[in-house]
Amino acid sequence: MTNRNSRNTETREESKRKVSWTRPSLLPTPEPKDGIEYRWIRTSTLGNSDNTNVSSRFREGWTPVRKEEHPNLQVVSDIDSRFTDNIEVGGLLLCQNTTENVQARRDAQLLQAESQMDAVDNSYLRNSDPRMPVLKPERSTRNSFGK
User: Fold this and answer.
1) 50 and 44 Cβ atoms separated by less than 8 Å
2) CA-CA distance, 32 to 2, in Å (whole number)?
3) Region of 32 on the Ramachandran plot (φ > 0 left; ψ -120 to 50 alpha; else beta)
4) Per-residue confidence at 78, pLDDT binned at 50, 70, 90?
5) Is the pTM of this model over 0.90?
6) Region 20-42 average pLDDT
7) Phi, psi dihedral angles at 34 (to 5 degrees)
8) Which residue ranges make up each domain of the chain?
9) Residue 40 contacts residue 91 (beta carbons within 8 Å)
10) Are 78 and 64 in contact (CB under 8 A)?
11) Residues linked to residue 37 through DSSP beta bridges, in sequence order
């Protein structure tokens, strides 16, 4: 004897996947826009405002993002926030800057790091003993995860 159920009694809900839950991130991510980069800027640490950091980042071209620009983020501002019309979470203020400006800053920092490494190499090679020639040092970086 076989159990023959009609197709009408079967439902898709029986074969539906179980809904998975993931913890929401502490800092929401705004929807990307062409030519704009976003960054969280520290406004306070342990309840003490960090005016030096904020003014330094503003001079670099970062501007606070207004709540109206990203209504989908659903953020409640910090209590006693100086940036009431902007998106601030836990002492971090969401700011935006042009991609061109951000890339120029990265290039300048890379150039500075390269010139510092050249200075170290030149100093190292200048102080070496001529009886023991030293080749230009080789540098390589490697990332490894796990064992």
Assistant:
1) yes
2) 57
3) beta
4) low
5) no
6) 85
7) -65, 130
8) 36-126
9) no
10) no
11) 97
